[in-house]
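note to self — DONT lose this again. spent like an hour looking for the file last time. sequence + predicted structure for the chain T wanted, 155 res
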Amino acid sequence: MPSLLSLLRLAAVTLCLGSLAACTTTGGQALVDSQVSAEISDLAARAIADDMVSQMADHVGPGTTSIAITGDDASFGPALEASLRAKGYAVLTGQDTDDTSAVPLAYVIDPFESGVLVRVSTARLELTRIYAPNATGADPASPMSVLQRGTAGAP
């Protein structure tokens, strides 16, 4: 009887650990594909890009690395590229992104309640904030969420 009880406990523990393992991430360094699923004006795209790049500069200094942007949306990608360049970053786009020393950067913009949820990510840094688009651009509607992975200060 004790061995049957031990086997049942072992089976229950294994089942629980297997369930928990299925919920974990692989921990890979791959970024999501850049995408914009919310419609934003060119003014809002510029305001959001300027704010995100300003926050990024606090964590990854301009002039220290090349940033590789992928994405083909018509408003936010070009606004982000222009903001990065204006802040002093070297930016690679399109076919230029074959440089293995460049830091890949991805962005996602999704609708969220009455605004948009914006995430800008590298393998080591993720910035997330909600914005409220308006007639003159967009205003931050939440604090900036900063997630750093690995070495502090690395892109």
